[in-house]
Amino acid sequence: MKINLFIPLICFVLLLSSCSRTDDNLGNEEAINVPWSLKSTVGGLAGTNVNFNMGTVLWTFNDSSNTLTVINNNTNDDVYDGLETGSYSYTMTTIDGLEYLIVNEDYNLGRLEYINSELTLDNGIPLDGLLLTFEIYIP
């Protein structure tokens, strides 16, 4: 009798543990439709490792018009923070199964990945490349 209860209990626990929250790994369409705040810039020859306060640099994608709006309030010109304040046309290009962000038709900003509610932008240059990490903006 105890074995009959034990097996369904184990199955139930395994079923629950295999589930994941849908907002932890956003799909590409869902991820692009939220405002993003630059969290950090890491890499480069100098070994940059800069953290930004929430809302200092905001990127908002509009997938219906393919427009990226950037509000960049960073005043430290010595720190790389991506694009300047403005509106940019963008496209997403897939190469060998990886997504790349292209702005103004010819400027490849790098590979985009959506992992655990974060967006990373890796320009993919070995040794001196930069990795920008964004988090969902919560005002």
How are the secondary structure elements laid out?
Blueprint (H helix, E strand, L loop, with lengths): L1 H16 L10 H5 L3 E8 L4 E4 L5 E6 L4 E6 L13 E10 L2 E6 L3 E9 L2 E5 L7 E7 L3
Antiparallel strand pairs: 1-2, 1-3, 1-9, 3-4, 4-5, 5-6, 6-7, 7-8, 8-9
Structure description:
With 139 residues, this protein is an alpha+beta fold. The protein has a single domain, classed as Beta Barrel (Lipocalin). It has two helices and nine strands. The chain has helices at 2-17, 28-32; strands spanning 36-43, 48-51, 57-62, 67-72, 86-95, 98-103, 107-115, 118-122, 130-136. Strands 1-3-4-5-6-7-8-9 form an eight-stranded antiparallel beta barrel. The longest helix is centred in the first third of the chain and has 16 residues, at 2-17. Residues 1-26 have low confidence and may be disordered.
